[in-house]
Design goal:
The chain has 350 residues and is of the alpha/beta class. The protein has helices spanning 17-20, 57-72, 87-99, 113-122, 148-162, 177-193, 216-228, 242-251, 284-296, 321-324, 327-342, and strands at residues 7-8, 44-46, 77-79, 105-108, 128-131, 141-146, 167-174, 198-205, 233-237, 255-260, 276-282, 303-307, 314-316. The strands form two sheets. A seven-stranded mixed beta sheet has the order 1-12-6-5-4-2-3, with helices on both faces. Strands 8-7-9-10-11-13 form a six-stranded mixed beta sheet, with helices on both faces. The longest helix is centred in the middle third of the chain and has 17 residues, at 177-193. The chain is globular.
Length: 350
């Protein structure tokens, strides 16, 4: 169970699955039913907008599920979202998973807040998790959150050191507080490193239902607009839409900074990898796996569980040799990281 690398801020406290979930998204497994006395199966995750295959946020969660399945040798389930779904649909999805004995059950993304709250009240013996939301307060809920602004600050340092035009771009998927953290950290990192650099910012949509996290075409168009305005490094915090940003950067021979997962290493993005300088990562996989392990160990995490630079659960990926071998960038990033961890730099969240 995590006790060194993550900070727990609060104490612990008979149809087939495919049929049961047919109205609220597909799943990868099927099995028998259970009751509310605590699950007899393993980890289940319910994906956010964009689903599995986004090469980013959701895929990171799936990596955590795969690790838990391999280590604990138990049944797991991962369930896709549906278009235009409501909070009631999300609640039904989580309730169905808990009813059939999965434990823990994790909603991937802040949109699951109301659903996790409702499902956790119905199944007090089951541990629930929610990624990127800290508003659900219950003895059987772990709020798995990250200091995204810290990794984004380092992305801003990198962009400022890499730009030749003194113009860089930020593309946010949806205009919500979570993504404001990415923008705020990025812009602060840029300005602290090279005050004369201009930061162009654009949000794709006002709500997730409009496709801000799931529309590569929207991301591509936004990035192309910023590149036309001389941006030569573009950072996207936009889920699946970020693929379009990376595609545009590659086509226009400029640089992109990925998000959440190490996008340089994603097979689906291999044709664009030379344009992916680095990625601002957050270890969703570890958060998902660690909650599963805490349940397996009989000491379920609950309350706010935060990953940050100090714990090593946010940071910048160094898979691209061009990034890793750039001494100027590496020295600047290392210096900034040390100051953030020590508290000498306070990174803004909005």
């Amino acid at each position: 169970m995590r006790r060194v690398t993550r900070i727990a801020l609060a104490g612990t406290a008979t149809a087939s699955l495919a049929l049961a979930l047919s109205a609220c998204g597909g799943t990868s497994t099927s099995s028998s039913s259970s009751d509310s006395k605590g699950g007899n199966k393993g980890l289940a995750i319910a994906y956010d907008v964009g689903g599995k295959g986004d090469q980013s946020f959701n895929d990171a969660a799936f990596e955590g599920l795969k690790k838990a399945k391999g280590e604990f040798k138990y049944d797991t389930a991962d369930v896709e979202p549906t278009d235009g779904e409501t909070d009631a649909d999300k609640t039904q999805r989580l309730v169905s998973l808990a009813k059939q004995g999965y434990n823990p059950v994790i909603g991937i993304g802040y949109a699951y807040g109301p659903a996790v709250k409702a499902a956790a009240a119905k199944f007090p013996k089951t541990t629930f998790g929610i990624v990127d939301d800290s508003s659900v307060e219950a003895a059987n809920v772990a709020d798995l959150v990250f200091s995204e602004q810290e990794a984004s600050y380092l992305a801003g340092v990198t962009a400022a050191k890499a730009t030749k035009t003194n113009t860089v771009g930020f593309v946010g998927g949806v205009d919500v507080p979570l993504i404001h953290k990415f923008e705020a950290g990025f812009e602060q990192g840029v300005k602290d490193t090279k005050p004369g650099v201009k930061v162009l910012s654009q949000y794709l949509t006002q709500t997730a239902q409009e496709g801000g996290f799931s529309s590569p075409d929207k991301g591509k168009a936004a990035a192309e607009g910023q590149i036309e305005k001389k941006a030569d490094v573009v950072y996207a915090a936009a889920g699946l839409s970020g693929q379009g940003v990376i595609e545009a950067a590659s086509a226009k021979k400029v640089l992109a900074i990925g998000v959440d997962s190490d996008q340089y290493m994603q097979a689906a993005l291999a044709q664009y990898k030379d344009a992916i300088l680095t990625s601002a990562t957050k270890d969703v996989a570890k958060a998902v796996y660690s909650l599963a392990k805490s349940v397996e160990d009989g000491k379920p995490e609950s309350g706010i569980v935060r990953g940050d630079l100090k714990s090593g659960e946010v940071g910048l990926a160094d898979s691209n040799p061009a990034y890793k071998s750039n001494t100027a960038i590496q020295d600047a990033v290392k210096a900034a990281q040390e100051k953030i961890i020590s508290g000498a730099i306070k990174v803004k969240t909005s």
